[in-house]
Amino acid sequence: MGTKFVVFSVALLLLVQIAVYSVVRSSISSNVRAQLAQELAIGDKVWWRLLDQNAQKLRLGAAVLAADFGFRSALSSGDTETLRSALENSGARIGAPITALLDTGFALQAAGYEMGGQEALTPVLQQVAAQLSQTEQSSQLQLINATLYQFVMVPLKAPLTIGWVLMGFPIEQSQANDMFGLSGIHVALVKPQGGVVLTSLAPKEQAALSQLGQGTELQLPEDTLVVRRSTERTDVQAVETYLLRSLDEVVAPYLQVQIALLGITALGLALFVAGSAALARRITTPLRSLVGAAEQLSRGEYDHQLPALRHKDEIGDLARAFDQMRSSIRKQQGEILQLAYWDRLTELPNRTQFRDLLQQSIRASIALEGAAPPVAVVLLNLDRFKHVNDVLGYAFGDGLLVAVAQRLSALIGAELGVVARMGGDEFAVLIEGSTAEEAVAVAQKIAASFDQPLTLEDQTVDFSAGIGVASWPAHAQDADTLLSRAEIAMYVAKQKTTGIQVYDPALDSSSTQTLSLLTELRHAVEQGQLRLYLQPKLNLADNTVRAAEALVRWQHPTRGLVPPMQFIPFAEQTGFVRQLTLWMFEEVARELPTLCADGRPLRVAINLSTRDLLDQDFPAKLDAMMAKYNAPTDAFCLEITESAIMDDPQRAEATLNRLAERGFKLSIDDFGTGYSSLAYLKRLPVNELKIDKSFVMGMETDESDAKIVRSTIDLAHNLGLSVVAEGVENQAILDKLRELHCDEAQGYYMSKPVPLPEFMAWRARHLAAA
């Protein structure tokens, strides 16, 4: 940049100097031409003035002769010899080789010269005399025998003019030299037909005179002459007079000025170059430093202080502004990185940083020689967090998230793994060198830590989480897939209320094993591959069967009978469970007349999923189906899990109220394993509680389970609800439930789920045995 600046400045200065020099040169040329024209015009006058002065001398000599008494007497007496002698003597005195006496008619009376061809000269003298008598000019030039003469003529009076005295003076080289010495102007007298008569030029330069009349300049070998043809005496026809002035002599003083100007220009240019270079260095050196600093900034290096801060000029101002920008960018970059990689609420790594750390861990494992150590991800999602926000407010919810983050960080520690907040109420733990089985132990520690309630703002909150576990390379080959599969396991854990779930391809709707499962399920509904199974519920008061639970089975054309756990979770995950629910209702409504053919009513329980409860059109769909088959709504009992209600309590409550208004019975399924509260049991239009089989099956051996079952039965009865115990596996459990006044029992001890015909046969046998 500095070189360009100097070159540009010098070029600009050169252009200015060239323009100035051109103007000066043009002005000098114009002035020289004008001066030459003026000098030549003056020289023209001077030349003729010199000739006039010479003519005056001749006239004076002629006048003396004309006034001489002896000369007059000789003329009166006709003494020709005396006249001739007087003419010769007088001409010799004044240097006039031609003298003559003419009468008034210009006839030659006497001649004071001796020249060959005198007879031929007489007409010339008569012609000159005639011309002089008719003009006001004091002299006349005449070329005689290649010599130019200047003639003057004075009258001879007595007192009238009785004759004329004519004298001729030769124009010599000395006169031209005098002219040159006086004015510096050369004179050249040239015959009209060509040929030089007289000139002050040196002999070697006279050859160029042949070019006279062809232009205003005459080119000599070493000089240039500006030519002017004399216009002072237009009556002179004997010769052409040219005045010549040396152009170089006139230009010489100006040439010195030009040389001085060039010298000043060169000196100024040198000084300007030096000054520009110094100025450029002063400007460009800090600017180069700033450019280098800008490149550092572009590479993300914000810690280097910028140079040129000490300058007190504009460069310093620019450097200080640039440094301030650097500081601001560094601060903003830090804030951006903080926002990009850290969660502002909990100060934990966010999803982006967690993903980067996971990728780094996988790459580090791959880079190790030998067997690559595994990398595990534990993903957890808090249960009922939306409910906490709705009831206690978002500020309380934020405080709860901070408390959970602190508890997880204290539990995991930097040595064990990295804790991150993935967003919302979702957290993750990265464990290097851990398999999925080893990560389950960490997940169990996390779940156990959640058993201790959190106290926040005088509020004690019980909370839990659905936890999913996946590991590399067992479950995925890259970080994104690993996170996705850990998330799938986490949501399955929440739906199944199992607490902890390790990823399995059967859970993943996008895995190769289940990629076509959704299409096959649709075909199963359309092609009649689904089967309705029923499991009886025994009334413990009179040992009758007044209710049954409807279940679905899939009779696949190639796989055979597909277990429910292989397609029900998938259907819940993809939302296809709503189609399965409607299929169940339609099948039961269609078969209801068959089930009640013996005159004994039967209430059929059907499970509802979270997606069913969140479907605002679900009640209307059931209305259409009941009307289609003319089925009574009180013949149906809708079983809902506590977790399905708690995912969105407001919408679930609204849907359940609409269903209850239509006459459907409602039952809380798996009671005791979820997060319901007495307040919800009081508010919801529930008719029945169904005790989870985990408590029922443990009644024989675990007193705590027995107490839970007893308390649940008492609680339900106090609330006006009936109780169903599922998971009855033997007579002892059945007897115990009867002692506790449980209303109905369900389990494999009585009957496993069977197709409709087998259910009808079993019911008939049971009735006969009773």
Structure summary:
The chain has 770 residues and is an alpha+beta fold. It has 24 helices and 27 strands.
What's the topology here?
Layout: H1 2-67, H2 69-77, H3 80-94, E1 98-102, E2 108-111, H4 118-134, E3 140-144, E4 147-157, E5 161-170, H5 173-183, E6 185-190, E7 196-199, E8 217-219, E9 224-229, E10 240-246, H6 247-298, H7 314-341, H8 351-367, E11 375-382, H9 385-392, H10 394-416, E12 418-423, E13 426-432, H11 436-449, E14 454-456, E15 459-461, E16 465-472, H12 479-496, E17 500-502, H13 517-526, E18 530-539, E19 544-556, E20 560-562, H14 568-574, H15 577-595, E21 603-608, H16 610-614, H17 618-629, E22 636-641, H18 642-647, H19 649-661, E23 665-671, H20 678-683, E24 688-691, H21 693-697, H22 703-718, E25 722-726, H23 731-739, E26 744-746, E27 754-755, H24 756-769
Parallel strand pairs: 16-17, 19-21, 21-22, 22-23, 23-24, 24-25, 25-26
Antiparallel strand pairs: 1-2, 1-5, 3-4, 4-5, 6-7, 6-10, 8-9, 9-10, 11-13, 11-16, 12-13, 14-15, 18-19, 18-26, 18-27, 19-20
Helix pairs in contact: 1-3, 1-5, 1-6, 6-7, 9-10, 10-11, 15-17
Model description:
The protein is an alpha+beta fold and 770 residues long. It has 24 helices and 27 strands. The model has no long low-confidence stretch (mean pLDDT 83). It folds into four domains: 1-299, 2-Layer Sandwich (Beta-Lactamase), CATH 3.30.450; 309-340, no CATH class; 345-507, 2-Layer Sandwich (Alpha-Beta Plaits); 517-769, Alpha-Beta Barrel (TIM Barrel). The strands form five sheets. Strands 18-19-21-22-23-24-25-26 form an eight-stranded mixed barrel, surrounded by four helices. The protein has a five-stranded antiparallel sheet with strand order 2-1-5-4-3, with helices on both faces. Strands 7-6-10-9-8 form a five-stranded antiparallel sheet. A hairpin with a 5-residue loop joins β1 and β2 (108-111). α1 runs antiparallel to α3, α1 packs across α5 and α9 runs antiparallel to α10 (394-416). It is rod-shaped, with a radius of gyration of 68 Å.
